[in-house]
Recover the amino acids of this structure.
């Protein structure tokens, strides 16, 4: 399983993501700088978390228009798997790879804590080692993770099983519609999520709940 | 030519910042405050001198970057 992790100015979770990918898959991901125009030959591209371009204009807006994103969009259209985490979710949504938008947390505060996530769909490249309905602990750290979309899109996401992760009851940290924490595109090749599974895979993290998500990449 | 662009949240999109501002105005003693909505304002200097072409250009900028049309509306003034 060859993977690449995209690095933008202001991104700060790329090392955690690369370490998680390497630890679980055994292969070190390639770091790809945002100014590159071509992607290496990989099975998965991960857009990690952080504060690309200082969240200027809107979170992820500037990064979504960077040269490497044009290459990612082209390859995603051809079926390449893309995972966006936190700011990465905001970036790929701004780039139009996923529907809807991520706006200011309903409570206005930056939220940095552990939440519980329900795996809503285990037929994806990132959840196939989990049971549907399983609940895992996972950290979140964001100020703008409030997922919104129009009612027609919401109906489609729910009806087509494209809500991959939901905040378990009582743990929604940002006011996201229907407690949505992560979604996928129509073909299941692009997944975006606000929580940080890369920070819950080793005993030193306190728990290893999210390790099966990365193990899923090997089976997919 | 200068383009002045206002970007506002669409009706129905929650604006927690607007709500916080409304609350703070209340604390300052301003009464009769209804809904407060926060937006963004941009000024862009353009080399283009033709108003029709300039509007087309700025509209494309808004659609592609300045506004996220999933959640925001924009309007353009040219001077």
């Amino acid at each position: 399983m060859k993977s690449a992790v995209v690095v933008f100015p202001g991104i700060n979770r790329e090392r955690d993501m690369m370490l998680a990918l390497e630890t679980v898959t055994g292969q070190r991901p390639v770091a790809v700088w945002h100014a590159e125009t071509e992607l290496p030959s990989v099975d998965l591209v991960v857009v990690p978390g952080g504060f690309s371009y200082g969240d200027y204009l809107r979170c992820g807006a500037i990064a979504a228009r960077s040269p490497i994103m044009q290459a990612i969009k082209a390859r995603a259209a051809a079926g390449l798997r893309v995972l966006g985490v936190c700011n990465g979710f905001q970036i790929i949504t701004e780039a139009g790879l996923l529907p809807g938008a991520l706006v200011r947390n309903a409570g206005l505060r930056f939220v940095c804590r552990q939440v519980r996530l329900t795996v809503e769909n285990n037929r994806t490249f990132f959840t196939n080692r989990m049971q549907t309905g399983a609940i895992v602990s996972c950290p979140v750290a964001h100020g703008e993770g409030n997922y919104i979309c129009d009612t027609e899109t919401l109906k489609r996401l729910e009806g087509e099983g494209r809500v991959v992760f939901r905040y378990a009851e009582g743990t929604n940290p940002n006011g996201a519609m229907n407690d949505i924490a992560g979604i996928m595109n129509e073909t299941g090749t692009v997944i975006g999520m606000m929580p940080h599974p890369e920070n819950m895979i080793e005993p030193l993290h306190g728990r290893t709940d999210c390790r099966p998500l990365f193990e899923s990449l090997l089976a997919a | 030519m200068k383009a002045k662009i206002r970007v506002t949240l669409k009706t129905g999109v929650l604006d927690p910042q607007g709500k916080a501002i409304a609350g703070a105005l209340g604390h300052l003693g301003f009464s009769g405050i209804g809904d407060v909505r926060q937006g963004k304002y941009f000024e862009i200097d353009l080399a283009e001198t033709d108003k029709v072409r300039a509007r087309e250009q700025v509209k494309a900028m808004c659609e592609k970057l300045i506004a996220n049309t999933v959640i925001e509306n924009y309007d353009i003034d040219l001077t």
Observations:
- Chain B touches chain A at residues 13-14, 16-17, 20, 64-66, 68, 70-71 (CB under 8 Å).
